[in-house]
Amino acid sequence: MRRWILQPEIKRTGNRPGGLRSGAGIAGRRGVPLEALSGQHKIMRNLLLRIAYDGTDYSGWQVQPNRTTIQGVLTQVLGKITGEQVQVCGSGRTDAGVHALAQSASVRLHCPIPCANLRTALNDRLPASIRVDAVDEVSEGFHARHNALWKIYQYRIYRDPVCPPMRARYVAVIPYGLDEDVMMATASRFEGEKDFRSFASTEDGDKREGKSFVRTVYSSVLERDGPELVYTVRGRGFLHHMVRNIVGTLVQAGREHWEPGIMDEILAARARSRAGKTAPARGLHLLHVEYPETVAGSILVERNGSGL
Fold it and tell me: For the whole prediction, is pTM greater than 0.85?
């Protein structure tokens, strides 16, 4: 008989030493059917992973032949833990060198390991540059990319002449003169539903011929934070290199003291050649992926005869 269970969101706790417990320990955890330990792993679970990573040493998120990627490493480690062939579906791709504080990914597993234990096992085996902050069970139809409502990206520019080594991997260093007031005034011109073809990568423009370049940006703000200029953008979706191209164009506006209206002309031109250079990948961070309340708070988990 099909049953619906309302499962509260799992609170994040620190990693516990010792990795996974023995089979008896796992069985004693709430919400794990004892019969799962007998090898009858027939229940398919859908899990949401919240992931942070330093992207410096990776060739981006997506699996690529003969390259080390975030998705590839996660897939390999999950496979070793569960003994299953898994497919890790991210909320979107990040380029080589781009970081994430809260990337999201969904994965389907038969493995009965409780979410908290699975998080511990993943962090025990993953490199230190990749951390799984949370593992939550979600409804059967959930997909990390398709169900995302919006994302927040942040780009950090270090303005002082000498950048501390501890920050160097996570900022673009631009110590020369910039009209920051112009940049801040211009940043808001990207808000709203607009055609962003001028800010898509050249190869993305070629691939998307005949497809829409229209995207909705809910907020676009540039602010000073100590020695850094921080650009924060929240939107429904983003084209390849879109945020980095926006930042590169804002930097050009600051160097050349543009009037804010020039950005409207660049948007209207729908030509990549009209916008500025692509900003370096190391300054870009995926800050947050937002989902409907049923995922962010209480989670409906469908079980078919699981005994839960």
Answer: no
